[in-house]
Amino acid sequence: MSALGFLPATVRKSSTTRELDAGEILFHQGDRALWIYEVEHGRLRLVRYTVDGHPVPLHTARAGELFAEAALFAGTYRCDAVASVPSRVRVYPKRELLAAFRRDSTVAERFMAILAGQIHALRARVQERNIRSASARVLHHLALNTGKDGRTARLDGSLVDLAAEIGLTHEALYRTLGRLEKSGAIERNGSEIMLKKSPGL
Amino acid sequence: MSALGFLPATVRKSSTTRELDAGEILFHQGDRALWIYEVEHGRLRLVRYTVDGHPVPLHTARAGELFAEAALFAGTYRCDAVASVPSRVRVYPKRELLAAFRRDSTVAERFMAILAGQIHALRARVQERNIRSASARVLHHLALNTGKDGRTARLDGSLVDLAAEIGLTHEALYRTLGRLEKSGAIERNGSEIMLKKSPGL
DNA sequence: CGGCGTTTTGAGAGAGCTCAACATCGGTGG
DNA sequence: CCACCGATGTTGAGCTCTCTCAAAACGCCG
Q: What confidence tens digit (pLDDT) does each residue in A84-120 have?
């Protein structure tokens, strides 16, 4: 179930979980970085504060996501982590992880692979945000999220969630999907969307 | 000079460089993944093709950037890499890198630290792109790129480059900077921008 | 001097956001 | 069993903001 499921039993057993209420703070900027985390459910905002105390949002970590990985290689956290909604996180002690990496290089490599995969996904997302047109952006997203046939994308959450993920309002997303379907570019079927003939992206 | 400067001499010596003309292809989707790359100068587009042959841009790698790191853990490349302009890349043989990781876990850890840092930067960039308002986006970017004083950001390239980096047209950026300066939110001084009193971001 | 890239300002249009109303569905409690 | 409520899905109308296209001043370098 966890993205870190490959970890040896010794490390996995050293992990714990922590429940957070909405608004509860997991760690503060400047705290000693002793753990990294994975969101089991809920949502956490990572926020940095400027010298004059203004918040600068860095990221929102969602279910299934690993975060504060940079803490592995830094002494202190560089931002605050606050639960946006009631959440549960899995807590991995940094020492144990690093020890496991040293003990077995294949563990280190798998972890690197996870990081490399995240980089890939994030780059694609940045690229996606460069696309202004709602329809082109939606098609880009769908094209990158097709299943094995390379044509069909399955929606796992609501359209509201999808809209947030690709950076559109849900109204704009509804309208865009409607227009794309009417024009024959896609076909909807419950939670599945099939790309018919993708026009120039 | 290289982001991978920490690598042991044996690995560094095993790296080579390759010059690319504009439009020249570095690797193809499906090619065996034997190398990872670093852009020394120029710009490369990473593009994936859908089943019906339409290009889906994944990323644009710029000077100083490491790319195709995922190749370390995959058998084949998952996209094409094409030079947008005449470019030079440094070529690291995957085998040598992986061997170095296994030989010395501190090398592996430094590489992980680089990956983790990239993830951080990319997440911040995604977050930044979620901001619609040009002025808020500019302030967000400046706040995350201040020097040690936490107030002053130094521009390394032209404003045209900055505009592309934060996803605005250069005209919009000029106007926004002008307005911010007039309103007293920032102060410009050649290539330095000082944040005066950051309003709510 | 004559280009070329950067910086700057202007006017207009289009696209997505905002606000608003409404239908639908599933769960909850009286 | 039904009324109510919240989340999801959908559509409409107007507005704002950035993009686009255009033009021009500026500095730099050959």
A: 888 899 999 999 999 999 999 999 999 999 999 999 9
Domain of B57?
9-104
The domain total for chain A is 2
Is B109 part of any domain?
A: no
* Strand D contact at CB of residue A158, distance < 7 A: yes
Cα separation, B89 vs A196, in Å, equals 37
In a domain, A112, yes or no: no
| Domain match, B45 and B90 both | yes
Which 8-state DSSP code applies to residue B32?
A: B
Q: Collapse the DSSP code of B179 into the 3-class scheme (helix H, G, I; strand E, B; otherwise coil) and give the result.
A: helix
Tokens describing residue A80: 């605050």
Mutate to test the interface with A, among B58, B95, B125, B144 (most CBs of A within 10 A): B58
User: Is A1 part of a structural domain of the chain?
Assistant: no
Closest CB to B102: pick one of A58, A105, A143.
Answer: A105
Task: Specify whether B138 is located in the same domain as B99.
Answer: no
CATH number for position B139: 1.10.10.10
Phi, psi of B111 (to 5 degrees): -65, -45
Three-point CA angle B159, B126, A110, nearest 5°: 125
Helix axes B134-144, B105-129, angle to 10 degrees: 160
Q: B151-182, pLDDT tens digit by residue?
A: 899 887 889 989 988 999 999 999 999 999 98
Do residues B81 and B156 share a domain? no
Low-confidence ranges of chain A (pLDDT < 50): 1, 198-201
> Hey, what amino acid is at B96?
E
CA distance B200 to chain A (A): 7
Contact B54 A198 (CB under 8 A): yes
- Do the domain assignments include residue A150? yes
pLDDT single digits (tens) B103-142: 999 999 999 999 999 999 999 999 899 889 999 999 999 9
